[in-house]
Amino acid sequence: xxxxxxxxxxxxxxxxxxxxxxxxxxxxxxxxxxxxxxxxxxxxxxxxxxxxxxxxxxxxxxxxxxxxxxxxxxxxxxxxxxxxxxxxxxxxxxxxxxxxxxxxxxxxxxxxxxxxxxxxxxxxxxxxxxxxxxxxxxxxxxxxxxxxxxxxxxxxxxxxxxxxxxxxxxxxxxxxxxxxxxxxxxxxxxxxxxxxxxxxxxxxxxxxxxxxxxxxxxxxxxxxxxxxxxxxxxxxxxxxxxxxxxxxxxxxxxxxxxxxxxxxxxxxxxxxxxxxxxxxxxxxxxxxxxxxxxxxxxxxxxxxxxxxxxxxxxxxxxxxxxxxxxxxxxxxxxxxxxxxxxxxxxxxxxxxxxxxxxxxxxxxx
Length: 365
Ligand SMILES: Nc1ncnc2c1ncn2[C@@H]1O[C@H](COP(=O)(O)OP(=O)(O)OP(=O)(O)O)[C@@H](O)[C@H]1O
What we know:
This protein has about 375 residues and is α+β, with helices and mostly antiparallel strands. The chain has two domains: about 210 residues, Rossmann fold, CATH 3.40.50; about 120 residues, CATH 2.40.50.100. Helix content is about 20%, strand content about 35%. It has nine helices and 21 strands. The strands form four sheets. A six-stranded mixed beta sheet has the order 7-8-9-3-10-11, with helices on both faces. Strands 2-1-4-5-6 form a five-stranded antiparallel beta sheet, covered by helices on one side. A five-stranded antiparallel beta sheet has the order 14-13-12-15-21, with helices on one face. A hairpin with a 4-residue loop joins strand 12 and strand 13. Helix 2 runs parallel beside helix 4 and helix 3 packs antiparallel against helix 4. It binds adenosine-5'-triphosphate. Adenosine-5'-triphosphate binds next to helix 1.
C-alpha cells in the first residue's frame, strides 16, 4: 500500500507545498513544531482541502484538484489516531472498539484479536474514563484498526503520554507494524519514536520536504543534523542478537563486527534495531587499548561538518553502516579527522538505553 502526496495550500502566511511518496511500512513525517505535519495528515484524511495537487493511495485517487475529486473522510478508508484518544466516554471499551467497524461497514476483524494484539483484552467491559492514558490510546488504535483501513494515520499518538507510558506503548506499535502489515503515516517530533518505528522518513521544514529516504540514510546525513536536533543526532543500525552473557550483556552482530549492549530482550538470532547517538561515540586514530569501553569499531571518515559552536559532526562508514560522532572541533583538529581518515569509533555499552532498542524487526527493515 503506497501513498503519494503532492499538495499546495496557503494558510495566511504559511505555504504548504509538500510532495512525497510513502511506501509500504511506517513513514514518519518529522519536523519542528509548525512545519506543517498535521496539515499534511489532515489533507490526507480529508479534513483539510488543498488548493492544488493530488493524493492517491495505492492508485486510488483520494483528492485531485484538476478533476475536482475530493473523497469525503468516510470514503477514504483511513484510520486516524490523534494525540488524545477521543474515545466516547459514555461507551465501554468494547463498544468504542466496535463503533468504527460499524460506521465504516467494513469491519470483519474480531475485536478480541485486536484486543489481544494491543494488550487491552482485559479492559473490554471497562468505561473509558477509568483508563490510563496509555490504555486509552491503545483502545483508540484498536478502534482505528477495526475500521479495516487501507492505511493508518497517526498524529503524535504518544505526545500526551509521559515517559513510562510511552515506553509501555511503543512495543505494541512495533507489534502492530509487524503483525498487521498495515502501512502507517506517523507524525512525530520525537526522535526515539522515529528510530524505533520508521521504515521511511520524510523531513519537513516550513511546509516543504527537505529530505526523504530510509532511516539509515536520513538520520546519518550530517546536513540534516540541524533539523533533527544536535542532541538527538545519531544512527540507527540493524543488528542480530548473537549471544547473551550472564553478566548482563548481549552481543550483537552488526556489519562492522560485534557490539555489546545491556541485555537485549530478544532471543539469539533476532533482528533488532539499535539507535546510537552521535554524542555517545568518541573517535581514536589508533585502536585503543586498556579502555573500559567495550565497543571499538574500525571506521572511515566520510564527512566532517563544522557548526558555529565548539562541536563538529563526523559521518563515518563502519562496515556497511553509517554512524555519526559528535566531537569537539579541537579534537578533530588534533587528531586530523578529515574526510577519508581511518579511525576507530568507540562506544560505551551502557550508553544505549533500552528505549533505543527496537526488537522483533523483520530483515531488511
Ligand atoms: N486552519 C488554519 N488557519 C491558519 N493557519 C493554519 C491553519 N492550519 C495550520 N495553520 C498554520 O500552518 C502552519 C503549520 O501547522 P501544522 O499544525 O500543520 O504544523 P505541525 O508541524 O503539525 O506543528 P505541531 O508539531 O506543532 O503540531 C502553522 O504555522 C499553523 O499556524
